[in-house]
Specification:
The chain has 18 helices and four strands. By secondary structure, the protein is mostly helical. The longest helix has about 45 residues, at about 1-45.
Length: about 400
């Protein structure tokens, strides 16, 4: 009886400790989602004092995640894997100076004992608040060309205005709608019905009237259509063959992108596709000639050498090692989604990979990259919504 009582007390203490650590981690997540879902653009536009506040909030966020990591108990396997990723990210940073690799690993380590669905549900509202505040502020003040067009769009011999609403470009603004819808879908998948799908589609159409972002519109439409498909054909998504087919589609798509950029394909086919894709292929080929792929990646000024194609940008900047590790994780997530009856996992991977062809930050940038965050599903064993007992 005394032993049972002692075990109950130990479990209660451990549970309280985990809840406190969870609270600390959520403070960090809230701050990061606020900054990366619009707050950065808003604070940058408010002046030097606000920019200092941005750095303070970032520092506080990573301090919270650091406390969560240091106070969390990991299994030997988890600790070895996490330490290995952290060392590789630190070594890669020496070569490519890309801080997102290190922050991505920190985020993944902090997600131990965190239910991703719950985290996405809560952080969706923070991201929504951040995006709306940035858009409303830009409409009110026209910050940095925010509500005004960042550039014109020639359509039917007329200039069609494009609005970025405070974000760096109209494409970036539309991409954040896609990210918010992805967060909402992943966090509320079991509750989503036809009205939710209709609202998401309507928001996409309305925002397109202002951003005129074809990549954003098509990426979001693809997300919504795929959501409707897996809702209708849910039994199909639980079959092992379905996961294998999706993994094959992902591999073929990635191989095709790399072939078009590095394989010197038929010129006529290449230029036709390049025209359809607004010169994204020729830009990627040009950058790849200047910055050849390497094992640990390359350091270059991303604003000057910007590459729209996420697959090529990841390979050139992150390096071959992380390119292989990331895509291996994506394939494993597709198969895991089928095995665990979580089709939203495959949805995140597949849609991010396709949309990431046209927008590189979809696949790369910290808390804003949902495909990076869901890798936590591979690192930590889970049963339902609870993490397995720490051993």
């Amino acid at each position: 009886m005394i032993k049972t009582l002692r075990n109950d007390i130990c479990k209660t203490v451990q549970r309280d400790r985990q809840e406190k650590l969870k609270t600390v981690a959520y403070i960090g997540y809230y701050l990061l989602f606020f900054i990366f879902y619009g707050g950065k653009y808003l604070l940058d536009a408010m002046g030097k004092e606000a920019v200092i506040l941005e750095y303070i909030l970032l520092l506080l966020a990573y301090v919270c995640l650091g406390i969560k990591i240091l106070m969390t108990e990991y299994t030997q396997k988890e600790a070895a894997c996490g330490l290995g990723l952290l060392v590789l990210a630190a070594v890669s940073f020496i070569f490519n100076k890309n801080e997102y690799l290190v922050t991505n690993v920190i985020l993944l380590l902090s997600l131990k004992d965190i239910d991703l669905e719950e985290m996405f549900r809560q952080c969706f509202w923070v991201g929504l608040f951040s995006m709306l505040m940035t858009m409303l502020w830009s409409i009110e003040t026209e910050l940095g060309g925010g509500y005004r067009s960042s550039r014109g769009w020639l359509e039917a011999d007329t200039i069609r205005m494009r609005y970025s609403f405070g974000f760096s470009t109209p494409n970036t603004c539309h991409m954040y709608l896609w990210r918010l819808e992805m967060l909402y879908i992943f966090g509320n998948y079991s509750k989503i019905r036809l009205p939710h799908i209709a609202v998401m589609m309507a928001l996409n159409v309305v925002l397109y009237q202002f951003t005129v972002s074809r990549t954003g519109f098509l990426g979001t439409m693809l997300l919504v259509f795929y959501l409707g498909f897996i809702k209708i054909a849910e039994p199909l998504t639980e079959k092992r063959s379905y996961g294998i087919i999706l993994a094959a589609v992902y591999i073929i798509f990635g191989a095709l992108v790399c072939y078009l950029v590095f394989g010197k394909p038929n010129a006529d086919l290449f230029w036709k596709l390049d025209g359809i894709l607004s010169k994204r292929l020729s830009l990627a080929v040009e950058r790849a000639e200047w910055i050849p792929p390497s094992f640990f990646g390359n350091h270059y000024v991303s604003d000057y050498n910007y590459i729209d194609c996420g697959w090529v940008s990841m390979l050139l900047q992150w390096g071959g090692l992380w390119f292989v590790l990331y895509n291996a994780a994506m394939i494993a997530l597709i198969l895991k989604g089928t095995r665990d009856k979580k089709p939203q996992l495959a949805m995140v991977v597949l849609i991010s990979g396709i949309y990431g062809f046209g927008e590189s930050s979809v696949m790369e940038k910290g808390v804003a990259s949902i495909s990076v965050l869901v890798i936590a599903e591979l690192l930590y064993r889970r049963t339902g919504k609870q993490v397995d007992k720490i051993v």
